[in-house]
Amino acid sequence: MSEPLVVVNCKTYAAASGLASNDLMAALASVDSDGVRLVLAVSAFDLHALASAHPHLEFWSQHLDPVGQGSFTGWLEPETAMERGATGTLINHAEHKVEMDHVKRLLHQLDGRINVCACAADEAEARSLAALAPTMIAVEPPELIGGDVSVTSADPGIVRDTVALVKGIDAGIMVLCGAGVKTGEDVSAALRLGAEGVLLASGVTKATDPAAVLQDLVDGARRA
Asked: Among 34, 64, 125, 187, which residue is least crowded by beta carbons within 10 Å?
């Protein structure tokens, strides 16, 4: 298996947006992530500044739209995102759902140039997404997102079954899990269930000591 993946979604949390994001990224940059792939999914407003200031970190967009450069007011256009430092994107997150055709057209437009992590609420959605062959699929039961109980303990079956389902369709798609992931043990459990990484947000972005929390998550990935 390739390096386990820890994706921190900054969403629009106050501690992870705008000027405050500078301090957060400086703290996260201090984490010893050797052997673990660390990704920060940041606001489009912050992408260029953060990617320029921390070239050794990997930054993704939180969303992209399948549009070109032209008359598309208010849409998030991929070419500029890549030019500004995005090496990947989330799509179809529970907080920003899109039609399957949106995902299909985005994948066609990007043509493998950057990573696309498509989020699934359940196995049925994971099956539909897997047919489109994104780089990875993150299964996140929406009722557990932002909670204190990790999907790995609340519903380990959905992780194990989604891995089997997706790999049965396309073995090259990475499978992540998220929702309630907050500790290194949560990460270890996810990897033992067959996932290749985790997607989380508030466990890091709202922590009193985000660097310590992230170090625990990374260490958990190493222990698995």
From this structure: 34
Active site residues: 93, 140
Residue 162 contacts residue 120 (beta carbons within 8 Å): yes
How many angstroms separate the CA atoms of 179 and 184, rounded? Answer: 14
d(CA 224, CA 149): 19
Residue 39 burial by Cβ neighbours in a 10 Å radius (0-12, 13-18, 19+): buried
Question: Taking 70 as the threshold, does the pLDDT of residue 1 lie above it?
Answer: no
Range of the domain at 132: 5-223
CATH number of the domain that residue 64 is part of: 3.20.20.70
**What mean pLDDT comes out for the span 78-102?**
98
Concatenated DSSP letters of 11-55:
TT-GGGSTTHHHHHHHHHHTS--TTSEEEEEE-TTTHHHHHHH-T
> What is the token pair recorded at 139?
């299964």
Joined tokens for residue 214: 């992230």
The DSSP code for 59 is: E
At 150, which amino acid appears?
A: S
Whether 172 contacts 180, CB under 8 Å: no
pLDDT mean across residues, the chain: 95
Q: What is the pLDDT of residue 136?
A: 98
Which is nearest to 163 in space by CA: 132, 135, 201, 127? Answer: 127
Q: How many domains does the chain have?
A: 1
| Count of other CB atoms within 10 angstroms of residue 133 | 16
